[in-house]
Request: fold
Amino acid sequence: MSSSSERLEMAAADTDTGSDSDSGEADGPGRLRRLAPVLTGLTAFVCLLGWLQKQPCASAKFDFIQTTTNACYTDIYPLYYVRGLSEGKTPYFDALTATGSDIQYVEYPVLSGAFMQVVAWLAQPFDESARGMAFFNITALLLAVLAVVAVLATAYVAGRRSLRAGLMVALSPSLLLTAYINWDLLAVALSALALAAWSARRPALAGVLLGLAIAAKFYPLLFLGPLVLLCVRAGQWRALGRMLAGTAGAWLAVNLPVMLFAWDGWKEFYSFSQGRGIDWGSIFFFLQEHGLENVSSETGLLNLLGTGTFLVLAAGIAVLALAAPRRPRLPQLMFLVLVAFMLPNKVWSPQYVLWLLPLVVLARPKLPAFVVWQIGEIIYFFGIWWFLLSVSAQTEGAYLADTLSAVLAFDAPEGGISQEVYHLALLARFLTVLALAALVVWEILRPSADVVRSDGVDDPAGGFLDGANDVISLGRWRGRHHAGVPAPS
Reply:
């Protein structure tokens, strides 16, 4: 008969894994079917709260002063008008005539533009004066559905920790605050589905979903790197080939028609991204005030610094992937390569936190660091809007003491915040993300510290990589070299 301490340990383990120890369906669809109603309901509730958070601005037709004061900004409503959707213009095929802007076409990847167009059609039956708000509300409803998809897919991939992973995403403040800023949840949901398909050992389907995600947003392209590296280390060539073929096929199927018949519109996203300057959220916004004064006026130098830093970090991640004492888990590398892309990027919008959210809970499902990161994101979320309030109102903005007094009184600082206070908010996000990356690297180098592997599993998200033997390993080669044994040919 087990002791009381042993029974407590077993109960804790059951709680953490969704109470599935007594079921033959400890992993996969069985657990997801049981958890789906709870996770769906909680995600829908958080998305409803996110929609309500936007209502003070919606009642003012998203007037910019109102949106920055109340921190309820969205791109969705204004871009319905600014990008010509209200005039019946078709993204990529119809040029824009925005006064004072160099943008001639919709500057989003093709699948995002198609999403916008479909919603514009759905809003068409509404009265002309109500179409803009209908466009926002329909978009919000569809994005909420995509949020549910992302949560369920993440829970599926998490294996024994599906309940914890699903709850961490569903109940995150970042989802509530940023779900409706832009259309990012389309790519987030497709990426989560791609990872779920890969974990289910369906590489071709995973490739198709990843290709669609890349057609919606650029960042999922980065996930090909970790997949290639880990498949090379494990010798999973067939799965890798099927995944890459599916990715290329799906991306071309979506993009090729627009490339052939609306080339200028199709390339707008890429030329716009290349020529874009420093975004408010970029670390370069801070650095241009602290030693890199000229970088803001030289786009070529800015691109070189950002891309060069990313390539150096990516090379380090590649070495880590091939030389770590145990093959890293797929979500760990996906998270690291995404962080390596975001930290030195010239653009880091508030809603980009959604890109990281599923990967954080899969790479490191521990609450303390996750909570600290979410606090950093909350600080930045309010910081960016209140700083833009001071910029738009042409005021100096409140300093730290006055900002804290306003926040403790549950109010926005009158006239926004100063640039110095905004820099603190920017660094709060930057440093908490950097700290998460450092913790993930540490757990890759010390697999015994990885809470996922402490359950005796290898890589629940790995698919064919899960439990596979290494074929290529720089660590193994180094050990043989030092021992005087020839490395395998």
